[in-house]
Design brief:
The structure is a homodimer of 363-residue chains. By secondary structure, chain A is α+β, with helices and mostly antiparallel strands. Chain A has three domains: 1-107, Carbamate kinase, CATH 3.40.1160; 125-201, Acetylglutamate kinase-like (Carbamate kinase, 3-Layer(aba) Sandwich); 206-363, VC0802-like (2-Layer Sandwich). Chain A is built from eleven helices and 18 strands. Chain A has helices spanning 4-15, 21-45, 55-58, 77-84, 110-121, 155-163, 171-180, 233-243, 272-286, 313-323, 347-357, and strands at 50-53, 60-62, 71-74, 88-91, 95-97, 103-105, 127-131, 152-153, 184-188, 196-198, 212-216, 220-228, 248-255, 260-267, 290-294, 297-303, 330-334, 337-343. In chain A, the strands form six sheets. Chain A has a four-stranded mixed beta sheet. A four-stranded antiparallel beta sheet of chain A has the order 11-16-18-17, with helices on both faces. In chain A, strands 13-14-12-15 form a four-stranded antiparallel beta sheet, with helices on one face. In chain A, a hairpin with a 2-residue loop joins strand 17 and strand 18. In chain A, helix 1 (4-15) packs antiparallel against helix 2, helix 5 (110-121) packs parallel to helix 7 (171-180) and helix 8 packs antiparallel against helix 9. Chain A starts with a helix and ends in a 6-residue tail after the last helix. In chain A, 41% of the residues are buried. Chains A and B meet through helix 1, helix 2 and strand 1 of A and helix 1, helix 2 and strand 1 of B.
Chain lengths: 363, 363
């Protein structure tokens, strides 16, 4: 049923380029309702007691932000009633209803988030998420053959990995899990292997400094050159991008002679054309010099909860890349990750080198 | 969006030949939800305030009979709230929810019925039903060129016409309208002509003896021959047919010599094959002689609220048919209609003759 949402959006587009978001939610919510009723029929045909429920029927209350609503509460009375009667309950993900009884959808990552939120409401021991991989790995096994499946990972590490292009779990679902202390078990749909537990990790285990290496090729870089050094210039630029909903990831400002700067930043590659139009306008408005941009960049990152107490980690990363003659164009760090922008065609080699440097392949 | 329901049923059939009816309703209800949200988008694009609502949101409470539920109550609070805010309200027809908050569908005729039930709940002056014809005619204008549009027709007459193959309104919706005294205005979608009002007709107007002529070609006739004349035989036959949900329309039993009878009856032509299997089984069980059947029959009917006080009407009908050399195979009458089974290829000629005989073409 994977294409249903796209087909529904296409139906709406045939009518209007700007459908009201409330009506779009009314439309899009049918997709999961269709697939969960069909799944219930399949389970019934196998001879098990089953019932499908919409977000409204489950009592998933959200805020009023149509097309990207946030879950406020799950009453779960109906869920409990069906579970007590030994029913297999199939809940339509990605949807809820607001206090006005209008149908809302949760936007990107909404289905995983529904699962975790229901687990929280039921105080379930674990929320199993079935996916097309065996669990969370120290690196992409297609790039690093000796990548190792992690048996446990902390919420924060998973969040960094998730937002860094290791698309096993939607970041939103991990946030909700962290907030409510729900243990997620990421495992394969097609075998019975144990996967990876995502949970609050005890202190002792934090001594594993680096848990994983991730790379993301969906990156583009834009530089605004020769920018006058006066207050409000950067704010003007990034506000203009935010207004068009372009997510800016890494930002570097470098001071030049003559009190003029270069500002470089990265965005999703899909947003490049849209962003360039905005940057050109801003360049004229603020009197900057020129614009440079490139799609041939990638982001490689190391993630680990123990990093904060181990100051040498970033240095090890830079050395490992330098040893491979890989040039670092931009750097950003958080408490539990270090990311570097490098040339796209060196990403594979970089991930392999970092996986080796932090000895992630060995137990 | 006309094929959506068929497509959804097809999806269910791909999974199982016997989907649970509760889940089938969960699935089928999405069809109207999709089309009413798309319609709301179209109205919004024209610049009018609009909102779409599901059966659940409108508070359409039904009984528990999934796939053919009956409406028990409409709370209408939400509807009134939106109307007070000057919204054009689009309600998903054909659906509601039972006291357990499960989604139900109303089955055949459910969309018209929803409209009439909402009009009743809101105590609306009129329920306008937009269709592909201008209104209710004295006969099918494709058969009788001087057929006349009726400005008013009674509920009972409309019910007879509706169930006799003049498919302007679903009979269920007329029943609900009669029950709650809702005036229905049947009119065309593509022009502003006044259509036909369906309402309680004052006595004086009942002097119009015959209001319309209808024909129905979706008829087949089966005769069970040489049936022993003992109690319970007819009951056995028609119970067996009812168990397989085959609707029997007209029944004639004719006594022969030797205390054996013929039983003839008519059914929908689509049910013929299924019915013959049952009749063959019953024949063996009761020791009847043989079976005759034919698809080449049609039902022609005259309908009129004034008929009951005008005993000569049936005689006029039979004479008019006889004058055209049309043989009558079966006859059935009610307080406001007379129906005759004739040869299918004579149906057109019969309708024209009856329309002429009762002077329906003249005001």
């Amino acid at each position: 049923m994977g294409d249903t949402t796209d087909e529904l959006i296409d139906l709406a587009r045939q009518i209007t380029s700007r459908p009201p978001e409330r009506e779009l939610d009314m439309l899009l919510a049918t997709g999961e309702q269709i697939s969960c009723s069909l799944l219930a029929m399949a389970v019934d045909a196998l001879g098990y007691p089953v019932i499908s429920l919409t977000g409204t029927q489950v009592g998933i209350t959200t805020d009023d932000v149509h097309t990207k609503a946030k879950i406020l509460d799950i009453s779960a009375d109906r869920l409990r009633k069906e579970l007590i009667h030994n029913k297999i309950v199939i809940v339509a993900g990605f949807q809820g209803c607001n206090s006005n009884n209008d149908i809302t959808t949760l936007g990107r990552g909404g289905s995983d988030t529904t699962a975790v939120a229901i687990a929280a409401a039921l105080k379930a021991d674990v929320c199993e998420i079935y996916t097309d991989v065996d669990g969370v790995y120290t690196a992409d096994p297609r790039i690093v053959p000796d990548a190792r499946k992690l048996s446990v990972i902390s919420y924060d590490e998973m969040l960094e990995l998730a937002s860094l292009g290791a698309l096993v779990l939607q970041p939103r679902s991990v946030e909700v899990a962290k907030q409510h202390g729900v243990t997620i078990h990421v495992r394969a749909s097609f075998n019975y292997n144990e996967g990876t537990l995502v949970q609050e990790v005890a202190k002792m285990e934090k001594e594993i400094v680096v848990s994983g290496v991730a790379s993301d090729l969906n990156v583009a870089k834009i530089s605004l050159l020769d920018v006058p050094d006066r207050p409000g210039v950067a704010s003007h630029l990034f506000k203009a991008l935010a207004n068009e909903r372009i997510n800016v990831d890494m930002i570097i400002q470098s001071t030049m002679r003559n009190e003029r700067n270069n500002i470089s930043f990265t965005i999703c590659r899909d947003d490049l054309d849209k962003a360039l139009l905005i940057v050109e306008k801003v360049r004229d408005e603020i009197g900057a010099g020129g614009i440079a941009f490139g799609k041939d960049v990638a982001k490689v990152s190391i993630v680990g909860a123990g990093m904060i107490t181990n100051p040498g980690v970033a240095a090890t990363m830079f050395s490992a890349l330098a040893a491979e003659n890989i040039n670092i164009e931009m750097i950003s760090t958080s408490e539990i990750k270090v990311s570097c922008i490098i040339k796209a065609d060196e990403a594979r080699k970089a991930v392999q080198a970092l996986h080796r440097a932090f000895e992630l392949g060995q137990q």
